[in-house]
Automatic annotation (TrEMBL):
InterPro entries: FN3_dom. This is FecR domain-containing protein. Keywords: Signal. Residues 1-20 form the signal peptide.
Amino acid sequence: MKKQWKRLLVAALSSSSVFAVTWYWYQSTGNSNSSYGNEKPLAYVGKVVEDIQRRPASRLLWQLVNTGEPLYNGEAIRTSEKGEVRIQFVDSDRYLDLEPESLIVIKRSQGEIALDLMEGSLFVNAKAGGDSKDAPGLVLNSANGKVDLSQASASLSKGKGNSVDVQVLEGKASIKGSDGKSKDLTSATTEIKILAPLPQKPIAMDAEAPQPVQFQWSGFPANTQVSLWVGSSRKELKEVAKSDLNQSQLSANLPFGRHYWKLVGTTPDGKNVAESTIYKSEVLARYAPTVVFPLSDAEIPATATPFDVTFKWQKGDDTRQTTLEVWKDAALKQKLTSKSFASDEAFTLPALDAGTYYYRMGAYFTDSDKPILGKVQKFTVKPAEQVKVQAEIIPVQVNFTMPEAQYSQYFVQNPKVGLSWKTDKNEHVNSYRVKLLEENADPSSATSLEVKDLNVQAPVTKPGRYIASVEALNKDGQVLGTTTSQPLTLAVLPLLKSPQLLPAEGNLQAASDGKTQLEWNPVEGAKEYWLVIRKQGKELKRSKYTNTTTSLKNLLPGEYDLELTAMDTHGRSSEVGPIRKLLVPDKSGLKAPTLKKIKVN
């Protein structure tokens, strides 16, 4: 009997040690940062749109990735159907933008950073940091050879088979084939050239008065009519405008947001003769500086003439330069001054006589060369006794306070956009006007609501991309300040990922006495877990757990199917993972006691 207990003890210790080693392996690869030790990252995650996942080189499971996280050698990054991510390389200003439904692997190879584009598309901007002495080379591995992108800005997309289409937009790039010879890709680009808008450059537009986007090109054959195709993805392009025959330009109304587009040339009988590469452009909503003083149609009391008038305004965070123009007549022919300011938010125009003046403010933004011009407004200088005294307008700063992670928001049932902001002089503000505009909607359809608090849950009709802004108002409804417009994405809260029974591979095995110890990985956001046991398709048991372990007892010999799901705080079940097999042996490991001697009296 003693020998049997010893055997049982050895078996238990062996089983426990195997489970412990498996669990240690799983946990040791769970934290990608710790597993890389002192290794220097290759890049960092920039702005993230929707769900982005990474897979470290030492893991088989995908993990969600957030802004600011480091990326190491051998890691893979993939985007969802509407997901986008910017990857900023260390030691330089170079970056890449990974587009929706794309997968890329980043590696360090012989002093270079190598990109393997497995599927989808991306934009690489290496020209900005290509001359840095400390920056390693940046190359793309393709079926045709190694493409050197160290001094280029290029658009890359996975073509048919293993080929990768490379469109060099700026700088120079070359490809080295298997024979070791290099070929300049810049000289091999298509004859069709896009003159406007510049590919991958934002298109800044006045949010209050949007204008058609101007498209210009060269290189199409003679006797060709060019049409513009636009869509929300590379796979969904539709014709939206067409030029006249033999013309090299057209205009099209594009809503605020991201757009993919291409130009297609056809003959008068409708035959396609040429086609450009697919480009991506973003139409940004921009606002002219908010004028705090003088307000439109204001009457300024002058104690004596001539009188000095001080202009005050508020500029956005991404404004690099503001302009002020003042005229003496409604026809805008007698200009009194035209000034530009880098950081100032006030300017005094001296010695104005009594009368009416006209002014306009504009702004140059960091991502565009053309200014956004505000509306022409007027004010009148009058003797003090002829002007009704009005309360002084005190400008305030208004800024959004949502963390960058909240630029992508989720809902379960009723779609709402959550906004929060702050001001530096809240005591002077009576209310706030919140404006929300759908990405693909006409600006005149923007919804507006007035609130007293510094936050709001604004209901909307459907998920999608929205552009939000907030204005601070005084008791007379005058604008004291406004935020910079902020794009946000609203989507249905995705279901939880399915929990995985451990170990992740192979069948699960019960002990010889029918007992089974089960354990699974925790799922972030899970309130509880449900385990369903089936045999030959018939459900035998359904159990709820709040932890990640359980023990099954009294299972008869045979084969069972285990299904494990997680439930979130909204009562929604997670995705269903693969069905796992549990084998219960039909023979016990215990031996029956034997009689060595029988004594009969």
